[in-house]
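User: quick one
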Amino acid sequence: MPSDRPVEARGLVKRYGAVIAVDHVDLTVEPGDVYGFLGPNGAGKTTTLRILLGLIRPDDGDARLFGRDPQHELPEALDGVAGFVETPYFYPYLSGRKNLELLAAFDRDGGRAQIDQLLELVDLDRRADDRVGGYSQGMRQRLGVASSLVRDPRLLLLDEPTNGLDPAGMRDMRRLVARLSGEGITVLLSSHLLAEVDELCNRVAIIRTGRIVYEGTLSDLRASAGASRYRLRTTDDRVARLTLLEHSHAREVALEGDELTFTADEEEVAAISRALVEAGLGITALVPEQHSLESLFFELTEGEPVEAAA
Amino acid sequence: MTGALVAYRWELRKLVAQKRTYIGLGAAALLPVVFVTVMALQKGGPYDAPLGHNLRRTGLALALVVLNFVSRFGAQLAAALVAGDIVASEHAGKTLKMILTRSLRRGQILAGKTLASFTYVLATILVLGTAGLVAGSAAWGFNPLTNLSGVRVSALHTLWLSAAALGVFSLPLIAVAAFAILLSTLTRNSAASIVGTLVYALGQEAIAGLVHQSWAKHYLLSDQFDGWHGLFMSPIDWTLIARAAWVSAIFAAVPLALAYAIFKSRDVADD
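Assistant: Done. Structure below.
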């Protein structure tokens, strides 16, 4: 039965012989979410996305996209859904435009009229008539996004969309995802990059060896991460040290060489920096020495197995 | 337009854009020319081949004699080159997951690929026939032909019969293409599918050579490549033609049904 909830998966299991690639995964993506599916390579993100797109069958559990089962209701279950798993691949002997025309035709010509506009959106309009075989990795990634948008989706499933891109390409891709989200498209984005998910996503599931070890908001995760260590350089270290010592949220203040270090919760750093400025100091550097969220992420994905949280 | 026709149209476009497509078509166009050239450089010829006694007397015989030659290996290779690749190349290029997440059903996509493979088979045979007609007529003229029963047939009537012969010859070749599609779906490997299809075709020839009961040979696919001979008998032997049709249909339907079952249900993972 159709519903408004873009993704709802319960108890998904996929085994390859003795290996359990996906181990009782539950996912819930609400309308408007930019949902990060975070985990190291090989954690089961792509396999889960393949199940959601109906490309592979789970051994157990079920998934719903807008209330429809992609295992039994294809292609209807993919109405309003688009995306790609791993790197998007195209026919190298056809041009970018022809590839999009082919995909639009496979969507009953739904998005054919938008192809020029989409090529411009992903900055491929000048290379649209070149064969895809000559495209760079970044161009193929962008064409992948365009190929998804041809379907005019309500839900985008993007698997490592910045994989293989140079820093500028990653920046552009993230801007594009943010823009699409701003236009009301729900996004389920898998990534192994915490910073990427942190920048783009409002909710996150962290997967490790096929199991969800955290699902919730990043702010909740950050709150549970506790304090971080910061390095501080100012125009006057002596005054800065005194200010920090007087500030109730700064702890373990120490002078190390030509910089100060202190421990504080991430939420309190803004207040501390304001206090420093109010004390007449110029801040030349305020850098987290060890990002607590990152530490927690590594703990969740690399440490001893932990029980699912949140 | 139905989904299968959409897929078919785009499969044709993809074939047109690939170099591989032109290997078989080019060979089909060149073969009659090579045949005529070799004949021009020597006095002898394959006069004992069916309708071979007409060589040097009418150009209309050329395409038909060439059909006899390609029926053992070359035609199967041309069919396998495209049909054996048509699903496997999607796996190798990792494009299958892209097209399977659109609005067409898997069955429609496979139907489009199957129709495109069959179209390629027909196009190859058409090119062979046309090149044979042009090269043969240029070398030996557009003259009447003496059929397998020794009856003289007018040039125009022979032309029509030749067109029909190409159609009948295409039937077992389509069945070979169907087997190549099965292997392409099953193995997901173009080279294995092409080689496997040739082994299958040659295997049928070998079995035909081993089987002593002539009735059994008639129901092997290899025998159906001679079904068109019925058109050049007086009166026309419809039994040969009908058998070529229904035996080929069975040899095509079984692999296609298997290919459909596999394609419809198989996991699409990059392995």
